[in-house]
Amino acid sequence: xxxxxxxxxxxxxxxxxxxxxxxxxxxxxxxxxxxxxxxxxxxxxxxxxxxxxxxxxxxxxxxxxxxxxxxxxxxxxxxxxxxxxxxxxxxxxxxxxxxxxxxxxxxxxxxxxxxxxxxxxxxxxxxxxxxxxxxxxxxx
Length: 140
Description:
- The protein has two helices and seven strands, in the order E-E-E-E-E-E-E-H-H.
- By secondary structure, it is α+β, with helices and mostly antiparallel strands.
- Strand 1 and strand 2 form a beta hairpin.
- The protein is elongated, with a radius of gyration of 16 Å.
- The protein starts with 5 loop residues before the first strand and ends with a helix.
């Protein structure tokens, strides 16, 4: 790595998506978005759901990520995500259909926000909303 880059590794249970030198990373933590530049103070953070951006030179690359952990060291960021996908991998029509179905499912529930059914429906909505947002924003 150069003096201005650090290693970024992004891994899901099914595959490794990224392993390269980058200049910058921003990602969704459960307490808000966080950013990392070279030489950042080491820490461990739980990922939320949202858009992850990393920069290689002048090129910004984006992924939709959902839950997991990020470990930041002085020379490496490791993202262990339950799900991560590039915008080109997201089928926008399918994501929009899943979002509509999840919203209908939520409307049909007559249970409180603490029930298992409610939490599952909300998780489906959150996942689909994230996919739709990232795909619409960055799909070429």
